[in-house]
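cache lookup: miss for this entity combination. No prior model stored, computing from scratch. Input as submitted by user K.M.:
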Amino acid sequence: MVEEICSSVEQIRNIHPLVHNITNYVVMNFTANVLLALGASPVMAHAEEEVEEMVGLANALVLNIGTLSQPWIDSMARAARAARNRSIPVVLDPVGAGATRFRTETARRLLGETPPAVLRGNGSEIMALAGSKGTTKGVDSVAGSQDARQAAMDLAKSYGMVVAVTGAEDFVTDGSRRALIANGHGLLSRVTGTGCAVSAVTGAFCGVQKDPFTAALGALVTFGIAGEIAAREAPGPGSFQIRLLDALDAVDSPAIRELARVSLS
Amino acid sequence: MVEEICSSVEQIRNIHPLVHNITNYVVMNFTANVLLALGASPVMAHAEEEVEEMVGLANALVLNIGTLSQPWIDSMARAARAARNRSIPVVLDPVGAGATRFRTETARRLLGETPPAVLRGNGSEIMALAGSKGTTKGVDSVAGSQDARQAAMDLAKSYGMVVAVTGAEDFVTDGSRRALIANGHGLLSRVTGTGCAVSAVTGAFCGVQKDPFTAALGALVTFGIAGEIAAREAPGPGSFQIRLLDALDAVDSPAIRELARVSLS
Amino acid sequence: MVEEICSSVEQIRNIHPLVHNITNYVVMNFTANVLLALGASPVMAHAEEEVEEMVGLANALVLNIGTLSQPWIDSMARAARAARNRSIPVVLDPVGAGATRFRTETARRLLGETPPAVLRGNGSEIMALAGSKGTTKGVDSVAGSQDARQAAMDLAKSYGMVVAVTGAEDFVTDGSRRALIANGHGLLSRVTGTGCAVSAVTGAFCGVQKDPFTAALGALVTFGIAGEIAAREAPGPGSFQIRLLDALDAVDSPAIRELARVSLS
């Protein structure tokens, strides 16, 4: 598995997969810089007039509902249909699902209409979408991981997709395969948009790796390792954010082989 | 007063108050990172469909008119009413009031419909809202501070709110109490959104401190001190922005006791 | 020519030209920080209700179609007309022209209705607007520079404007004068929005320099030199972005005289 992750990172740097993001205003800049630092090619486009044409150029589509409004939902649905028709992998980030009905219902609508290759959320969001009684405080998760893992398994089976739950320890499942990832660092929760960024990175991995389970795993491991490298000398969350971009640029096969902490089951 | 500021900072780090921001596109990322660095929990949500539900989860609401359009104004008004009904404190940042009629009128409409706990602006903006003949050059203040202070006193009395005027020296009043704050650094004006950030930080303080005068004062002092710490080794405005986030994470009671420069009258 | 660039930089720092940007969500924050670091004064405003009034306060208007939608196009067209009526220079950045019909047509509509003082794009974008068969991969250029230079000449003559094509080597023409600029650094392509930023910087130069050819040249040289300075000690793209802001603040006449690499023809 670790060799497949190394191979995906190399491919991202060779192919520069185009990742089409329809994402929230807060993280657009950081998301684009994360993708560029890793070696991918980001594009943001949300107008109904162009999303189908843009997604047709892309290697992956990332949908993120972090700052939602009706025209954006319509564009996301339209882009997701175009992606499905062209077999372009979709990653869905249900930011804040469970916090408001509008977010929960929008995420469910997108899941139901065009199940993505990968759903990536925190514990609260995944539990809210599975119908569990999780509590979402704003956009931050307060759900325990064991319940969230069961919710992820249920969702993965229902929709035939991979579900990635990020937190202190990350969990990925396609309904049968399961993986736990112990990479990452506490400072990642002190910078806005790191969850959104790992969703975008999952898009980049999906653009070079056909199996979405392997792609999601690779994204979580690689991003988590970059976080560990960035935290080594960061005096605070501002410096950490910048070093994270440097680390995404620098992370390579030796670092992945040394630092990856994955257990499959 | 200084001990109350120290206590508020500690409470922000213990409680992580949820600050709901309906703010401008330019500063969303930086605002979220400023709140996270300080220890608060930011959420951005602007859709009419969800703002009332989201503000109901929040400890404070921050409205910022920096990149205005009609749907956003409607959502701000709706969120402000919901906040009032639930006694959730509101901070209003009238970015660019005085520069265009649209901004001046929007800020006045929001003030008139639902007076906030705290209005935070620069001298030009505060004077424009008080009907003085200030001149706003884009979103930067060109108004002298003495006139702005009188305008702040007038507005505070008229609307029964706290007014905070930031500049080389900051001024806070609730119409009777007045404070001058001499913290801060010139580099703060070389980074976009530092005024917007201090408004958001005022929201975080309002989320843990009932008295909005004390909350606004605490926000200005703490943010100003973080600016001073950040400036110590910053070779330019880029580095300063990053160090400011590190300093908001690091600032503590000893630093506040040593560096606070407040005079009450 | 180099002395005129030095003089423009000094004037930007003395006059702080107000640059009104109607730009994309991804780069708003970085664009504002770039302008502030250089010494200019940025404002972002996109509502139809205020763009005419705001542009009337500005020394230059920068239009950027990076995250397009219909209301924004209408505001751009309206702002451009107001700018023309008041002889305020306009810079147009046709982000992603050639990638989707929506972008190509919008850029052409804006060019046709109110030709800007300067059109600034990458090779693919310029070729798409000239009707050449360039290929745009998302928002990144894949066009060779020789063909792009011919397209730039054609467009410059057709519309009576300056065209600046950025890439490994930059090219500027007004249809008769031509310049090649060899400043810059590869890391500039690893940070999102550096192309958009140089368009905004071109706006700042147009705000203090009447001749748009000289202004565009000055912007490209100054920004490129800042990139070279920033790259000297940057361990990766994150650090580079921050050092670029520091370098824009620090770049001065001696640095410009030493590092400018311009050839006129």
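stored under new cache key. Chain C has a mean pLDDT of 95.
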